[in-house]
Structure formats: C-alpha cells, structure tokens
Amino acid sequence: MLTKSISKSLRFALPSILITLSVPEVQAQGRGFDSPGASRYFVTGQTNRFTNDFNPAIGVVVDAFADYIDDDAMDGYGLQLRLVELNASGFVDPDAWAYMALVSEEGEAPEVEEIAINYTGFEGNSTLKVGRFFVDFGKQMQMHIEELRTLERPLPLRSFLGTELGGDGIQYDNWMALGDMPVRFSLGAFSSLLGEEEEEEGAAVPIGATSERSDIDELSFTARLTGMTDVGDEGQFQLGLSSRFVPDYSFGFEPASLETGGLSNSVYGFDATYGWVGDTGLERFSAGGEFLMFDGDLAAALDDPTTPTAINVVDETANGFYLFADYGWNQVSSAGIQYAMADLPSDPDLSQQEVDVYYTMHLTELRRLRFGVTMSDGDNGDSTRVYVQFTNFFGNHAHGANW
Amino acid sequence: MLRTIAWLVSRLTVCLITLSANAPPGKLRVVATIPDLADIATQIGGERVEVKSIARGTQNVHNVPLRPSTLVALNKADLFIQVGLSLEHAYVPGILMQARNSSIQPGEPGFVNVSVGWGAIQIPPVLTRQQGTDLHPMGNPHFNLDPRGGRHIAKRILEGLSRVDPKGRSYFEKRYEDYLEDITAAENRWAEIGKKLNGKKVVSYHADFNYLLAYHAMDLVATIEPNAGVPPTPRDLAKLVELMKAEEVELILTAKWSNNKSVRFVSEKTGVKVVEGPTMVGGVPESDTWIAMMDVLHESLQRALE
Question: What ipTM goes with this model?
Fold first, then answer.
C-alpha cells in the first residue's frame, strides 16, 4: 500500500521537479518547453502563461444620434450610428501604461485611431509617449468626439486642425510644481499632422498630404504649456498655450495630375478654463474658451473645377475662437451654450459663426442622452440642426488625454 | 518695451521661486482621501504631521472632484491614506499615477489602505453592472460610519506613520492610546443611544449607513436608489412608497449630496421624517472630527425617532 502510494507520488512529482530545475529563477511563471528558435517572448512564460486576470481592461463605446437639419443646400431627418469604439488599456509593466482605441465611424471599416504606450520610468515627472495618438493641443482637441460637450468639435478647431488630429509620433511630457500650482509642458514630433477633413462627397478639391519619408526638420511638431491653480475652496483655473507646426506638405489633385509642394502652416492656440464645483460635488459650473490663429499655407482650390490646370494656395492668416459656459445642477442634468467663430481658411476675409445650445442627461455614469440645437450662420451658408445624441459606455473607457 | 518685459519676467521668476519653497520643514506630509482619515491621522500624528484631505465632508465620496493642489500635494506626500474596498477607485489610481511619487504607490511604505483587516459586509455574489454602477467588488466600503471603524482606522494609520517616521513611533503610540480612550468614552455614549435605535425601520438613499444600522440592529428596509449609483425611476419610487407604508418605516436617512427630489418625494408620499446625516467628517455642522461626527449622527437619529 505504502509502496504504491510512494510510486504514485513520484510519478507526479518527478516531472515537476525536472521542469522546476530547468527553469531559471527569474522566470517565475515557468514554461512548458523550449523549441529551438522560439522567440524570447514565447519561451519566458510571461506572455503565454498568465490567466485572464492580467489582460487589459476592455470597453466599448456606442455613439448614435437622430437629427433634423435645415440647411441652405439640404434638409431632412437623419438617424446615424456615428461610431463604435473598442478600447483597451492597462499597465504593460510597472513603468509603462498603454491604451488603444479601434474605431468604426459611420459604418465604415474599423481603424486604429489611437494606440500608444506611456513610459514613466524616468526620474521625476517626465513621460514619453510613443505610438499613434491625438495631439496635445488645447483641451478639446485631445478628446474623442463622443466625449465632447457638444455634438461636433468647436468650429475653429474643426476648420484649422480638422475634425480629429492624431498622428504617428513621439511626445515628451513633464510637469512641475510651482507652489500649489502644477505646470506642464509637452513637445511632440509626428510623421504627419494634417487633420482629418470633413469630406464633401464628389467635390473636386485638392487633397493635402505629407511625404512618406521626411528629413527630421520636415516632421510635424506640437508643443503645449499649461498651468492650473485652485481658486478659493471650490474653483480652479487653467491657462494653456498650444501650437502645431507642419513644415512641409503639398496639395495634389490626382485626376489632373496636379501637385504643389513646399508648403507649411502653423496653428497657435490660447485656452483659458474656469471650473467650479459646489459643496456637494454635484452642482458644477465651467466656462472657458480658446483663441486660435492659423498661419501659412491654409488651403487650396483648383483654378477651374471643370478643367483644372493649376492649384491655387491660400497663404494668409485666419483667426477663430470659441467660448462656452456649462452648468450642472444635480447628478443627472447639465446644460450649456457655446459660441464659436472662425475665418474660412479658403478665404480668411470670410467667416462663419456657430451657436450650440444643449441639455445633457447622465442617466447613469455609463449612459448619456443629449438634446441640442446647433445654429450656423455666415459666408459659408446658414443651417440649423436639432439633435438627440445617445452615448453608451460598456465597461472601461480610458484614453491618454492630458490636462 | 524690452525693459518692461525683462522686469516682468524677473518678478515672475522671483514669485515662482518663492511659491515653490512652501514645504513645511520637518513635518511629515500626509494626504488622505476623506476627511475622516485626515482627522484620525491628525489625532495620532499631532505636531509631527501636516495633513490634507482630498474630499470634503459634504461631497459624494464616489465622485470627488480633484483640484490642481491635490496633484502637487500627492507629489510631495510622505504618506497617502485611502479607505480602500474600491471606494476611491474612480480617482485614486489615476491621480497616483499622475503624481509620480514612487514612495506612496500601492505596496510602498508610504501607502496605507485602512480597509486591510476589516471584515466587509455586502460583498456582491455576482459581479455585473446589472447590480449597479457604483458597485464595490470587495464589499461595502463605508465602514467609516461603523462605531468600530475609528479604532480600526487608527490602528492602520499608526502603522503607516510609524513606518515612514520610525523616530516618531513612541510619540504616535502615546497619542494613539490617548485617542483610543476618547473612542472608548464615545462608544459608551453611542451604546446608550443605540438601545433606543434597536429594531427601528429605516430607508436610506445610498448604502452608506449600513454599518451603523447593522451595529445598532436597525432594520434597513430598502435604499431609495434601487442599485448603487443608479437614480430611481418613477416606477422604483412608486414601489418604494408602497413598501415603506407596508413596513411602517420610521425614518429616511440621507446625506447632503443625496438629499434630492427623490428623497423629498418619498418623504411627502409617506410622511416619514428625513434625517440628513454626515457621511464623512465635516458633512454637517459641528462634525469636524470623527468622534464629533459620530456623536452628531447618533444624536440626529435619537432626536428623529423620539
């Protein structure tokens, strides 16, 4: 009986002992066996032996709206699943945090909108961010569109930087304390930072592009300096300066094989935001704005849309700004107004204005309903849009937005 | 013009340097998430500590707005104290990551989780958002309102302070013993009041008074929010009113942050009295220490049920 029991124990114990002896101490998770030529990541056991507990947090966002537009060019009702976003985030190791957002907009194939790793292993408060990510410009350009206070991004940001502005690049970030006031700066370099344009279907317009390979001084750059401070017991105030520089790009129009290169432009922004949160933390108010200056080669047009022979580039300065105020009176409800104005990059002597009025209900922390009206008026035409927006967050939702 | 700019820059530089040099010399810098922890850290740390609380007593502790000075305070802190049981999960991991202070990260000597060793109630049997949005996987975290909570928290804080300031250990221990005597005296007062609270039927807005109610064997019939973090619908309120009438509930317990129109509606429909109690130190007047807060809470309950 005893011999049988010992023999049974050895049968299980021996292979375990042999496996244990073959594993170096540092590989705490152990491994099955090494086949010749297997990659380091496969054989060290850290990537193929953990349970589900170590996976990143995963979430899905669904953003949809129903609207009615009364426009000079078109009017009517619309119902749209604007975007579905799959995101994941988590620590890679103690010194690195990563996140990604895979987004399908308006029913199109999903695209990697952001995937970046933040390395924080430096001495002090520095962070190095590498990957594809939204640029550190102002406070509203960094956010994904479903996270904004309004249905669309403010008019001058859309006009000068695009509906979204992300790129493949690297960003250095540092913050320091001046008294009780944190001050942060960042510097970024990207392969390209031409913003995503609002597409006009079938329009004959030149398309902006940067070259696939660039010299270092032809990369696109961003910079931001910002500081914030407490104001009394319940308020806080933030100021920021941002810039984005594209030193070399071109406009092309493929159907006529036209191209004009050696172009550059810059956008500078100055933002100020005041926030107040009442005694219970439920009543809150924020107000702020951002002024933008767009300078250089702003836009391009064909000399003749039917039989084009040349691309005319607008080399001027355009300005724009937006101001907003937002008041939340309980856990669920808030309302706000935003006024925006921007010169048209295609002709800075002309301008457009936009007013947004909205009411937001946070049904729970993870479900949001918004009712709004957007009135647009100016040299680009007049329009009114009434909408109901519904946004649902399933699970985790983390981005690398800076303050 | 250039001279004016140079003058402005030099003045600004002097101001910034002056502002940066504001650290109190020789004192241990302690940051606590809620004022209850800040108060108990002050009681034990005495002259050797300078304590700051992130939340204010009147706020919803699940949703604390962070301030710029919090980031700086955490960056310079020697000790960070949290309740734990995922009470602060909405903001602590993010702000600790931003603060970039390696000595107060979880697992380091400067990190104190006072829920270590506490036997939590209401651990959810199933983890799903169907059970609520403010769901705490490790159980109800509001044990700062348990009469036994102060004693437990004080012990964890004593350990933390002694870890980061070993020279002050005997000083902290002496103050800890004195503080326990104060708690013992307070416990006798609360026990007397508790005799009158025993068996009373109560409804609360959120599950934040559950430890206190259980301690005095009070009967929590329901919460006004049907699930943690989910506001009640009209259907939920109608069912609750019926239930409260059937069960003959005597009291509605709420806090400043949760004393809202749903509470008023239920009170009007049932005629049941509302007590706005503190859920943290400073939540109502005259509750500026943990013991004072628990006194105020017991006295409010006693008055309301007389």
Answer: 0.83
